[in-house]
Amino acid sequence: MASLIIRLHPADNVVVAGADLPPGTALPGTDILCRAEVPAGHKVAVQAIAAGEPVRKYNQVIGFATAAIEPGDHVHVHNMGMGDSFERDHAFGVDSHPTAFVPEAERATFQGIVRPDGRVATRNYIGVITSVNCSATAARMIADQFRGNALADYPNIDGVVALTHGYGCGMGNQGDAIDTLRRTIAGYARHPNFAAVILLGLGCEVNQIDRLVEAEGLVPDERLHTLSIQDLGGTASAVREGVRRIQALLPAINDVTRQTLPASHLTLALQCGGSDGYSGITANPALGHAVDLLVRNGGTAVLSETPEVYGAEHLLTRRAVSRAVGEKLVERIGWWEEYTTRTGGEMNNNPSPGNKKGGLTTILEKSLGAVAKAGTTNLVEVLRYAEPIQGPGLVFMDTPGYDPVSATGQVAGGANVLCFTTGRGSVFGAKPTPSLKLATNTPLYKKMTDDMDIDCGTIATGDATIEEVGQAIFQLVLDTASGRKSKSEELGFGSDEFTPWQMGAVM
Question: Which residue stretches of 166-312 are H helix?
């Protein structure tokens, strides 16, 4: 049974409601009565907090009182805000420590696919990736020819997936925007979970395929094909040619066998969406424990969503393996502060309405919970969006907080498994990378069983520990990498979630 309140640190001046607390509810272990209704996952004060004083959760500042708060008060957007900025002690590297790697002979294993060049896959897809929005319909028409029973004679092929986007023209032909798009598409074209890829363009777009191939060092061969609708004489001809090429490849692509491989070949993307007041208490720290296990076994994890580590970045810089790595993260935080100011926004535009309904009040509070996904291991590198991920260890990739855009960058970087924590019920998939959903609370898990892969709410109810659920997540990652389908795969998610980061002006 859930405790009425969850105290995260003795120094905190708020606790988290473990259930809906009506007015007059006595808070266990105190002589405090709730002065108002406090929904589950929201905060209730256990000390008087004067206007302007910091509100503390996780023994960290999550905001400042905007009005006097009395013990028993509901603490949320009506009486707490970001306040003035405050200094975080980045203390570069002071908490870094040698990683206790598991001996190679004893490392966890999974059943993976080894490509001819030695790269390791967890899935065996064929991709049709567009250079521009104008070729999106043709790409889907090609992929649609391989639905239903079309691949019945090729049981080792997971499918043919069209990855389309609304970008690629109406933009500059040089600069960060086009470079980022090309890097993203090239990352997918190289992804080991694609046995073969067709790059499909229109022919007159800014994002010309021949320039993309040249700029990213791609080499067209039996695995990478390039097609242009205009060069082939139109949509119907391009679709026929795309289908013909894929049909010719099917026997060879189907000829794969999974083999036992160490977990060091796994790169795990970390995402959270539709977060709530339990995210930083249950699913995120449990995923963090799974990350620690993966890293100890020689694997790699990638944390992202830069606006959602804002205010908690000092917890990562303290674990950086060098000052240079820590300063890369601080530089990215500074870029986002400047970017939001220049575009008329603010960092506290995040959390979303759903986050706030679930109990999160400020981006500081959300970020402190989000960083828990990264476990306790060292931060070994900070990357730009869609750059290749190199491990082992914990890597940070600079991405927006918007989940599809963020995950697209991680997959482009090479992530071959993805874990996504949610407290409100996000539905998501990311072909060609299998995606697992981790529910932060049991009511959500029971309500959305078709979408959720694991229930982390057992931590809040006291039925399991963070370590026990983290071990279960790690095992589920291994099983999924071995071919077990995730809930999102069973539902068919993953094609429409391909969303490259659209930077710069639309011309």
Answer: 176-190, 209-215, 229-232, 235-254, 283-296
